[in-house]
Design brief:
The chain is an alpha+beta fold. The chain contains 5 helices and 7 strands, in the order βαββαββαββαα. The protein has a domain of 128 residues: Roll (Hypothetical upf0131 protein ytfp), CATH 3.10.490. It is globular.
Length: 201
């Protein structure tokens, strides 16, 4: 194929280095856990050290508006995060990454990173206890990153905002419910949900 006839590079190729012909692990900490949307060969409960699940991303469309932004989850620095890690077979990696970039990277609020995660309660099919996985970490320099919000401000925003996909509280409730179903207890999110539910309307 002549140089001017080469296929365009996929969007993800500029953000993440994936070895051709290799499997890829993907870490989910929010809706990716129960609705990955891509084919996978195996999945495991896992812990990502160094980052925690946080309502730190302003939502201008799905759970809020530009005038009244809601809040959605991001992986922010510090602590650790329990989630689900998926192994994508090599043949499915390009399709999975195309899908993930369309789903997660439309406004570039996340930085995709390959980070070490620890499997919980078992090993992978290859006998691994830790794997290097693609993780979508919040970009702290992005305008939609909400730095330093205290609990009262987070509660007020989630209780009062809504967007194209409905009230912000529904996003929080759905997250807490699915985490419980997966056996992942997030005390901070559960407390937040209780506070939002009892917030004066």
């Amino acid at each position: 194929m002549a140089p001017d006839q080469q296929l365009p590079r996929p969007a993800w190729s500029a953000d993440i280095a994936v070895d051709p012909g290799s499997d890829l692990w993907v870490f989910g900490y929010g809706s990716l856990m129960w609705n990955p949307g891509f084919p996978f060969a195996e999945r495991h409960a896992a812990t990502l050290p160094g980052y925690h699940r946080s309502f730190c991303v302003a939502s201008h469309r799905y759970r809020g508006t530009p005038e009244r932004p809601g809040l959605v989850l991001g992986l922010d620095r510090g602590g650790s995060c329990r989630g689900i890690v998926f192994r994508v077979a090599a043949a499915d990696v390009p399709v999975a990454l195309d899908y993930l970039w369309e789903r997660e990277m439309d406004n570039r609020v996340y930085l995709p990173k390959l980070l070490q995660v620890r499997l919980r309660g078992g090993r992978s099919a290859e006998g691994l206890e830790t794997v290097r996985a693609c993780c979508f970490v919040v970009d702290r320099n992005h305008p939609q990153y909400c730095r330093g919000m205290d609990e009262a401000a987070v509660v007020c925003r989630i209780a009062g905002c809504r967007g194209q996909r409905g009230p912000n509280i529904d996003y929080l409730a759905n997250t807490v419910r699915h985490l419980d179903e997966l056996g992942i207890r997030d005390e901070k999110l559960s407390r937040l949900y209780d506070l939002v539910r009892h917030y004066p309307s």
